[in-house]
Amino acid sequence: MKYDYEDLYAAKKTYGQDINTSLGNAADPIDADQKLQEDALMSYVASVNYSYGDKYYASFSFRRDGSSRLSPDTRWGNFWSFVRFMETFSGKVHAVVEISIK
């Protein structure tokens, strides 16, 4: 996904009236600047679910995100999770959840 931004900045001083402080009412320009910026975001997602005999369940997901706003060394981040469920003999579900985020 790509985003385009355009910003315009201007400042003046010595206003003729204190009530009207618009840029057109000021006499002395201080600064003016314009900035164009392009940003991009990219994500990859993968998910795997596994069931064995309707008794054991496991789910694994992985996501990789990138942003052009970050430095090249830290531009990409990896995020993953793993979940495991096991049904006991009593019919109740026993869950063990392991999550790790980078």
| Helix amount | under 10%
Count up the helices.
0
Number of strand elements: 5
The secondary-structure element order is: EEEEE
Mind telling me the C-alpha Rg? 28 Å
Give the percentage of residues in beta strands. over 45%
Secondary structure topology:
Elements: E1 2-15, E2 26-52, E3 56-67, E4 76-87, E5 93-101
Antiparallel strand pairs: 1-2, 2-3, 3-4, 4-5
Commentary on this structure:
It is built from no helices and five strands. It is mainly beta and 102 residues long. Strands 1-2-3-4-5 form a five-stranded antiparallel sheet, with no helix packed on it.
Keywords:
five-stranded antiparallel β-sheet, mainly beta, rod-shaped, single chain, 102 residues
Can you summarize this structure?
The chain is mainly β and 102 residues long.
